[in-house]
Fold this sequence. Notes:
Blueprint: H1 2-37, H2 47-58, E1 65-71, E2 87-93, E3 99-100, E4 104-107, E5 116-117, E6 123-124, E7 129-134, E8 147-149, E9 158-164, E10 171-178, E11 186-190, E12 196-201, E13 209-210
Parallel strand pairs: 7-8
Antiparallel strand pairs: 1-2, 1-11, 2-7, 3-6, 4-5, 4-9, 9-10, 11-12, 12-13
The protein binds calcium ion (CA) (3 copies).
Amino acid sequence: MLKLQIFLIAVLMSCIAFVSCNRAQDMMGPIMPDADTTEPSDMVETDDMMDMTDMDDTSVTGPAVVINELMADNDNVHVDPQGDYDDWLELYNRTDSPVMLTGLYLSDKEDNPTKWAFPENTEIPANGYLIVWLDEDHDDEDATEGLHANFKLSKSGETVMLVDTDANANEVLDSITFGEQETDVAFGRLPDGIGDFQIVQATPGAPNMAN
Ligand SMILES: [Ca+2]
Ligand SMILES: [Ca+2]
Ligand SMILES: [Ca+2]
C-alpha cells in the first residue's frame, strides 16, 4: 500500500512538472517572436525616417539628391569664384554613389519648374555636396567657374525646387518654401539630407551644423 502511494505521488509530481514546463514554454513562446520583430521599421516613424527606409530598401527610391541648405541674403559669409557675395544653395547626395544631375532643374517659380538646367555632366559626389550660386550670372562670360543659376532667392521668402524631367513629366524631387530670411543666416536641414529646415550654421559644401 505504501509503494502504491509513493508511486501515485511520483506520477503526480511528474504531471505537475510536465504541465509547469509546458506553461513556461507557452509563456516564453510569444516573447521570443516579438523580440525578433522589434526592428527599426516597427519604431515610431516620421516622414523623414520613411524616406531613409525607402532609400535603404532600394537605394534610389526617394530623391537621391535634395536641397540641403540655402542662404537668401549673403552679405559676408560665402564668396563666389568671381568675388561676389551672392545667394547660394547647397545640394546633398544622400546615396553612396555619385549622381549625375543632367536633366535636373532648379526653379523659384512653380509655373516654370524647368527655369534653370544643370549643365550637362554635372556630378555630385557620393554623400557629397554641391553649391549653386543663385545670382543670375549664368550668362556672365567671366563666370565660367562655379554653377550660376538664372534666378536669385528673395530675402522676404519664396519657394525653391529641384525638378527632374526624366519621366516625360516634371517631377518635383524636393521643394523648400521659406519665410523671411536674415542677412548672413543660413537655412538648412538638420541632420543633413533628411531633417527639417531650420536656422543652421552656414556650412556651404560641408555637413550642416546646429546653430
Ligand atoms: Ca556671382
Ligand atoms: Ca527668386
Ligand atoms: Ca551645409
